[in-house]
Design brief:
The protein is built from 1 helix and 9 strands. The chain is α+β, with helices and mostly antiparallel strands. It has 2 domains: about 35 residues; about 110 residues, Sandwich (Immunoglobulin-like). A 4-stranded antiparallel sheet has the order 5-4-8-9, with no helix packed on it. It has a 3-stranded antiparallel sheet with strand order 1-2-7, with no helix packed on it. The longest helix is centred in the N-terminal third of the chain and has 30 residues.
């Protein structure tokens, strides 16, 4: 009879151990919080042959300007100087961008707001009529929006 007495006790101990271990795994999975998803926005881009860029936030998430990077390509070739955001004076760009790209502006870029900046004559490649200009906006190395326009 002693064999029967140890089986239920051993079973209860194993069941308790299994419950504690399972609860540990469930608790660990509840503590894992995935990182915030990359913000997404719809941007409209206009560019003229003089190198003036107008970016309009048409909808989607409000963007933190300080977390953004912008890459501009002309016919697939990156500009020598890319625009830092926000900025006031930067190599390759005329001083005084407007809207959320100006360092004196609000750091949030919301739907309906537009930002403008102009290339300086020292930036290359120059933009000419018929060129394809691609603007890629990223936040923490993840693409937020890509817009392409023929000048």
């Amino acid at each position: 009879m002693s064999r029967r007495g140890t089986s239920p006790v051993l079973g209860v101990v194993l069941l308790c151990l299994l419950t504690v271990v399972s609860a540990g795994f469930v608790g660990a999975s509840l503590l894992h919080v995935p990182p915030d998803p990359t913000p997404q926005a719809v941007l409209d881009v206009q560019v003229d042959a003089a190198g003036e860029f107008t970016l309009v936030h048409r909808g989607g998430d409000t963007l933190s300007v300080r977390a953004l990077s912008i890459q501009i390509l002309v016919n697939g070739t990156p500009l020598t100087h890319q625009p830092p955001v926000p900025f006031f004076a930067a190599p390759g760009f005329e001083s005084g961008p407007t809207g959320p790209f100006n360092v004196a502006s609000n750091t949030a870029w919301s739907a309906g707001e537009q930002a403008t900046f102009t290339l300086a004559a020292t930036n290359r490649p120059a933009i000419a009529p018929g060129d394809v200009v691609t603007v890629r906006v990223t936040s923490e190395n993840a693409t937020v929006a890509v817009a392409e326009v023929v000048v």
